[in-house]
D-amino-acid oxidase (Streptomyces tubercidicus), 345 residues
Amino acid sequence: MTSNTDDLDVRVVGGGVIGLTSAIALAEDGHRVRVLSRDAADGTTSAVAGGLCWPYRIQPYERAVAWAVRSFQVLTDLARRPEETGARMVMGTMTATTGGGGAAADAGDGVEDGLAAWYAAVPGLRRARAEELPEGSASGWRARTPLVDMPAHLRYLERRLTAAGGVIERAEVASLEEAGASADVVVNCSGLGARELVPDPGVHPVQGQLVVVENPGIEEWYVSADSGATDTTYLLPQPYGLVVGGTARENAWSTEPDPAVAEAIVARAARRFPELTRARVLAHKVGLRPARPAVRLAVERLSGGVPCVHNYGHGGGGVTVAWGCADEVLRMAREVQEGRGPAHR
Ligand SMILES: Cc1cc2nc3c(=O)[nH]c(=O)nc-3n(C[C@H](O)[C@H](O)[C@H](O)COP(=O)(O)OP(=O)(O)OC[C@H]3O[C@@H](n4cnc5c(N)ncnc54)[C@H](O)[C@@H]3O)c2cc1C
C-alpha cells in the first residue's frame, strides 16, 4: 500500500498479536498510534499460543483463509531473520484421525473443509504418504509453514512498532468511547476483553492447556486436530522447548494449569511419539482463546461519534491471520479518513 500524507490519531486497545500487528500497519503508514493494553505482552493469550500458521477454530473460514494466506507471506518473509523476529519455516504434518471435518480433515480435493484456498496457496503442500503418518492417523498433509516463537515475536512486534513511532501504554480501558476521547479512530483488538468492552456476549473463552518439555530430538511440527474435538494432539518444536498440546474447552475460564490434564496431554502425544515418555517437563501454560461465531472485523461509529474498527474474536487462529487482518484494519481506517466509512456490520 502507498503511504498517506494526512495522518490520523489512532488508539489501539489491546497489545496482543492482533493489536500489535494492526498498530504496526497503521504506524508504518504514517499515522500516530498509541496502543493501550491492560496486560504486558507476555501476559496475553498471544504469548501462550503454540505459534503455528494454519487456520484452526476460526470463522468465517473463507475470510480467515484469505487473511491466513496474507500472513503466511509476511511470516515467510520474517522467517528469513528468525533470531530477530521469532518466526521460522518448519516442515510438519497435519493429520486427522477421522475422514472428515477438521482443520486437518481428509477432504478429498480440499474443498469440503473450507480450506481449499489455503491448500492451493501454501507452496509445496502435498498429501502425506502412509509411511509419513504416525500410527492412528487416517490421512494428512505435509507442508513447510511458519512456526512462531510467540514471546520472541511479540517482543519483535513491540520493537518494530516503537521504531515506527508508535507508543505502547499499560492501561486498562473502561470503554471504547473513553479510549477514543481525543482520537480520530479507535481500533478494538481487546480479544476476550471485547466481551465486556463492546459489550459482546458472543465472545467467549476456549481454554487451551499445553506442556513445554525438553525436546528429545523432534525437529518437525505435528498436529492432529479434528474439528470440534476437546482434546487435540500437537507437537511444536520451539527454541525454548517442545510444545506439546493440547486442549480446547469451551467456556472454561481458568488459567491455572491442571496437573491431570497435563499428564493426559503428554501421555496422548507419547502414544504416537514414544520418545516423549521420559521427556522432562519445563513449563505448563494455559490460555483463553478469544472465540466468537465469526471474527468481527468491521467499522462501527461509537456513541460519541468516533469511528471504531473492531478486530477481535480470532479464536484459535489469531497468529495465523494477524497480518491479513492488519491490512484490512488499515484499509478501513483509510476509508474512514476519506469519508467513505464507516460501514455497519
Ligand atoms: C493454547 C493455545 C494455543 C494456540 N496456538 C495457536 C497457534 O498455534 N496458531 C494460532 O494462529 N493461534 C493459536 N492460538 C490462538 C491465539 O493465541 C489467539 O487467537 C490470539 O492470541 C488472539 O490475539 P488477540 O491479540 O486478539 O488477544 P490477546 O492476546 O488476548 O490480547 C488481548 C489484548 O487486549 C487487552 N485488553 C483486553 N481488555 C482490555 C481493556 N479493557 N483495556 C485495555 N486492554 C485490554 C489485553 O491486555 C491484551 O493486550 C492459541 C491459543 C491458545 C490458548
Q: What stands out?
A: The chain has a mean pLDDT of 91. Residues 7 and 165 are 12 Å apart (CA to CA). The longest strand covers residues 281-291.
